[in-house]
UniProtKB/TrEMBL annotation:
<dbReference type="InterPro" id="IPR003661">
    <property type="entry name" value="HisK_dim/P_dom"/>
</dbReference>
<dbReference type="InterPro" id="IPR005467">
    <property type="entry name" value="His_kinase_dom"/>
</dbReference>
<keyword id="KW-0808">Transferase</keyword>
<dbReference type="InterPro" id="IPR014729">
    <property type="entry name" value="Rossmann-like_a/b/a_fold"/>
</dbReference>
<keyword id="KW-0902">Two-component regulatory system</keyword>
<protein>
    <recommendedName>
        <fullName>histidine kinase</fullName>
        <ecNumber>2.7.13.3</ecNumber>
    </recommendedName>
</protein>
<dbReference type="Pfam" id="PF00512">
    <property type="entry name" value="HisKA"/>
</dbReference>
<dbReference type="InterPro" id="IPR006016">
    <property type="entry name" value="UspA"/>
</dbReference>
<dbReference type="Pfam" id="PF00582">
    <property type="entry name" value="Usp"/>
</dbReference>
<dbReference type="Pfam" id="PF13492">
    <property type="entry name" value="GAF_3"/>
</dbReference>
<keyword id="KW-0597">Phosphoprotein</keyword>
<feature type="transmembrane region" description="Helical">
    <location>
        <begin position="471"/>
        <end position="492"/>
    </location>
</feature>
<comment type="function">
    <text>Member of the two-component regulatory system KdpD/KdpE involved in the regulation of the kdp operon. KdpD may function as a membrane-associated protein kinase that phosphorylates KdpE in response to environmental signals.</text>
</comment>
<keyword id="KW-0418">Kinase</keyword>
<keyword id="KW-0812">Transmembrane</keyword>
<dbReference type="Pfam" id="PF02518">
    <property type="entry name" value="HATPase_c"/>
</dbReference>
<feature type="transmembrane region" description="Helical">
    <location>
        <begin position="425"/>
        <end position="451"/>
    </location>
</feature>
Length: 900
């Protein structure tokens, strides 16, 4: 039975995502002059005839008449004029293209570098923004400008191409190969169809030699064929067409500050593309080989940036042994291929320092190791980050002083110590200086110590001559101790400093995450974020969030942030970041002329806002480690803002759900509790109005009594609704006065007189109850609701009891019935609005009575609760007794006061 082949969900999802963007078509050639621009314009004319809206963003005709003729009939966006260093330049007007929003834009020379002052530093970034806006783009590219082939092109032609395009830009593009034979291309150069005659001759002599053209043509053909195979495989995956798929592979390249690493990265990129594999770029930072100079730090950052542009996942680790860190990560990430460089060093250098490559090969255990030999270079310099100033005279003076101090002590006790012990004691300043100040002062202490040992203690004393040459060994030992201990001390100090820096960064991130985790308001969270980021980076910081109209506004900023810095130019950069979800500003390839760096507060595909860092007082952008820390802060900030936003949305959803539940309950109550008494009233009135029936006085009285009872029922229902509305809106005002609770109970029972006639009611009251200060009408409503609730939820004919007592500064009133007992959950929810006991669905009512009781009692400062008793349910509420001031009514019964 054949296995069912289903489309690959990931491939389908990727295909759907690509459909949202514009389609990129690249007219690829082996070299200039093959006719890429001409072919692009021919294709554009065909699309124009089909009715497609085609606009020229940028086309370079180089003065060729046949190329210029193909521009006829096409809409052309005027170029943007820029001034740089006193000269005027023209560039593609990206904003005009985005505003025009054509179906197809023509953008020539994809690898072009834009003039400083443009939004992006590279034209391919302009094209990416057009694609993100849903605009199709036709563009041109020569094979030598592809980043992964840059080193191969340099090896073939001897010329390093500076303008390159990352391979990822072409991953989803349609490739149209424009190819001509080498002889025809050379003829075009000679005829001046590519460059002017003088430039053409120079180009033919240096770059466009027949061998170079053939090699570049082969690269272009191979790349186009590989892309065709990849597109076919993607189509087969997306549509579930069976076929042999390559096994999962993973490539890892080892990166260092060396310029040779750029070549390794490109090799790894080509290998990963050929294997259709994921790939990693790893840098291992060790205390002895940390780049100390700014040039090397910048080169390392460029190498890691190159790997990211080519699609690698970059990882930085710290450790003592480079080979062990490489292999450990390779095993954790299931790496199948390791690409590592091997500079051509001498055997002696490798014997002294060890070979990382050899150790990786020996311990690889099934992992393929690809060793790329490099050019001969001088031995790698081992840097030790300076802990104190390198030429501090105080450190050398301290080392010499320590040596002289120990020598003086030895002179005093020389006859008791002996030469051996004196030599050992003179090593103490060496060890102390190595630990305290490093290699230089330790060597100074060792030299001075040995000279003092020779001059003061070795015969003949008082001179630097040595009678026994064996003491030369002592001098060598002194120097070796100084070098070894100083080197070890520097390494330990460097590692401690590195650990402290990492610890500080982790502590800062943890502190920020802890501070914002428990905060439920947005403003305190934003203040914490700006304060922590500003303190860590020592730069002014602001968080920009959109207002109701979608315009970015400063929601929080550090104390040193200058409000005048936020001008129209900076606002435009921040808006671009918010719209596109990519960082921009100083130190990036996008809008690098800005005075600040702007990072998107992004979670997934949704951008919540922008973090702005003012760099107006800095000549360059953030360092790579600062940028990584800032991005970590941005991630935390974005998660916090998203959390608060989702929390607010969840709260609103709960409110909506509760409102819907209350609306449904109210609708059901209205439909039952209004229609039922109305039906009784209408029935009774109809019977009375019928002329063909004669009622005696008893029957007439019963019908009228029914009308009265149902009208009172409706009145209570409407009163409950109005009381709950007043409670919810805060409009309920208490009119407190001295009240006799016995009178209130009497009025409440009389209101329920008809309903209570068939039920025994027991009232128990403590003697000499004091007066209470309360709103008598509202307390009466509480008692009516409690008694009505007891009537509804107890068996007919069963007893209802009402108890009043005075306890601990309050009056406690309880209403008990012999109805069903409730669970603990029901006892807690019984006072919720519209809550009805599910065991008694046939009982009428809105479920508002007890909720109103709770609101009124709590407004008086009392409490209300429900509890089970052996025979049923008791609901109790308390009212506080006020303190008696001068001239107020004493706590006595009203009748007694009247009697006085």
């Amino acid at each position: 039975m054949e296995k069912e082949h289903r489309p690959d969900p990931e491939a389908l999802l990727q295909h759907i995502e690509q459909q949202k963007r514009g389609r990129l078509t690249v007219f690829l050639g082996a070299a200039a002059g093959v006719g890429k621009t001409y072919a692009m314009l021919e294709a554009a004319q065909e699309r124009l005839k089909e009715g497609v809206d085609v606009v020229v963003g940028w086309v370079e005709t180089h003065g060729r008449a046949e190329t210029e003729a193909l521009l006829k009939g096409l809409n052309i966006i005027p170029p943007r004029r820029l001034t740089y260093r006193g000269k005027e330049f023209f560039e593609m007007d990206l904003d005009a293209l985005l505003s025009r929003r054509p179906a197809l834009a023509l953008v020539d020379e994809l690898a072009h570098s834009n003039v400083p002052g443009s939004r992006h530093s590279k034209r391919y970034q302009d094209v990416e923004e057009l694609l993100d806006a849903g605009i199709d783009v036709h563009t041109t590219l020569n094979i030598q400008h592809l980043e992964s082939l840059n080193d191969i092109v340099a090896q073939i032609t001897g010329i390093r191409v500076r303008e390159t395009v990352p391979d990822r830009v072409l991953e989803t593009a349609e490739i149209r190969l424009i190819d001509v034979p080498p002889e025809e291309l050379i003829l075009r150069f000679k005829e001046g169809k590519v460059y002017v005659p003088e430039m053409a001759q120079e180009a033919l002599r240096r770059f466009f030699r027949p061998g170079n053209i053939n090699a570049l043509r082969e690269l272009a053909l191979r790349y186009a064929a590989k892309r065709a195979d990849r597109q076919l495989e993607n189509y087969m995956r997306a549509h579930g067409i069976p076929g042999p798929w390559p096994a999962g592979e993973r490539v890892m390249v080892c990166v260092s500050p060396s310029p040779f690493s750029a070549r390794l990265i490109r090799i790894a990129r080509r290998m990963a593309e050929g294997l259709e594999a994921e790939w990693l770029a790893l840098y291992v930072d060790t205390p002895g080989r940390s780049p100390a100079q700014e040039e090397e730090k910048e080169r390392l950052a460029e190498n890691l940036r190159l790997a990211e542009e080519l699609g690698a996942e970059t990882i930085t680790l710290s450790g003592e042994d480079v080979a062990e860190e490489i292999l450990e990560l390779a095993r954790k990430r299931n790496v199948t291929h390791i690409v590592i460089g091997k500079p051509l060093r001498s055997k002696f250098w490798e014997l002294v320092h060890g070979s990382v490559v050899d150790k990786v090969i020996r311990q690889s255990q099934g992992i393929s190791v690809h060793v790329i030999p490099g050019k001969h270079q001088p031995p790698e310099k081992i840097y030790f980050p300076s802990i104190t100033p390198p030429l501090s005279w105080t450190s050398y003076a301290g080392a010499l002083g320590a040596a002289f101090l120990v020598a003086g002590f030895c002179i005093w006790w020389q006859y008791s110590l002996g030469l051996v012990n004196i030599a050992m004691l003179l090593l103490l300043p060496v060890l102390f200086s190595a630990v305290r100040w490093g290699v230089g002062p330790a060597v100074a202490a060792s030299i001075s110590g040995f000279l003092l040992f020779d001059f003061l203690f070795l015969p003949p004393t008082g001179s630097f001559s040595i009678s026994d040459l064996r003491y030369i060994i002592s001098f060598v030992i002194f120097e070796l101790v100084a070098l070894f201990t100083g080197t070890l001390s520097n390494r330990l100090k460097a590692e401690v400093r590195s650990c402290r820096e990492r610890g500080d960064r982790l502590a800062t991130l943890y502190s920020l995450s802890r501070d914002i985790a428990a905060v439920a308001e947005l403003k305190p969270v934003l203040d914490k974020i700006t304060q922590k980021v500003s303190e860590t980076l020592e730069l002014p910081v602001a968080v920009l969030l959109p207002d109701k109209e979608g315009k970015l506004q400063i929601s929080a900023s550090s104390e040193d942030y200058d409000g005048n810095f936020w001008d129209e130019n900076e606002r435009a950069v921040a808006n671009w970041v918010f719209k596109n979800g990519h960082k921009a500003g100083r130190g990036t390839d996008t809008l690098s002329g800005s005075g600040g760096l702007y990072l998107p507060l992004q979670v997934g595909e949704e951008v919540q806002g922008v973090l702005g860092i003012s760099l107006k007082d800095s000549s360059r952008g953030l360092q790579p480690d600062q940028l990584r820390l800032a991005e970590a802060f941005v991630g935390l900030a974005a998660l916090a803002i998203t959390r608060l936003k989702l929390q607010k949305e969840a709260q609103e959803a709960r409110f909506l759900a509760e409102s819907e539940r209350l609306r449904t309950a109210l609708f059901n109550s209205l439909s039952h509790d209004l229609r039922t008494p109305l039906a009784s009233i209408i029935g009774a009135v109809t019977s009375l109005l019928e002329g063909d029936r004669v009622f005696d006085d008893t029957s007439r009285r019963e019908l009228l009594q029914t009308i009265k009872q149902e009208a009172n029922r409706m009145n209570r229902f409407v009163s409950n609704l109005l009381d709950m509305a007043r409670l919810e809106s805060g409009l309920l005002k208490l009119r407190q006065e001295w009240v006799d609770i016995e009178d209130v109970i009497g009025v409440a029972t009389s209101r329920l007189g008809e309903a209570l006639k068939s039920r025994p009611l027991t009232v128990k009251m403590d003697p000499d109850l004091p007066l209470i200060k309360a709103d008598s009408i509202l307390i009466e409503q509480v008692l009516v609701n409690l008694l009505d609730n007891a009537l509804k939820y107890s068996p007919p004919g069963s007893e209802i009891s009402l108890t009043v007592s005075c306890k601990e500064g309050s009056v406690e009133i309880s209403v008990s019935n012999k109805g069903p007992r409730l669970s603990s959950e029901e006892l807690e929810r019984i006072f919720d609005k519209f809550y009805r006991i599910p065991t008694s669905p046939a009982v009428g009512g809105t479920g508002l009575g007890l909720a109103i009781c709770k609101g009124i009692v709590e407004a008086h400062g009392g409490q209300v609760w429900a509890r089970n008793h052996p025979e049923g349910l008791t609901i109790t509420f308390t009212l506080p007794l006020p303190s008696i001031g001068p001239g107020e009514i004493p706590p006595a019964r009203v009748g007694e006061i009247d009697g006085n």
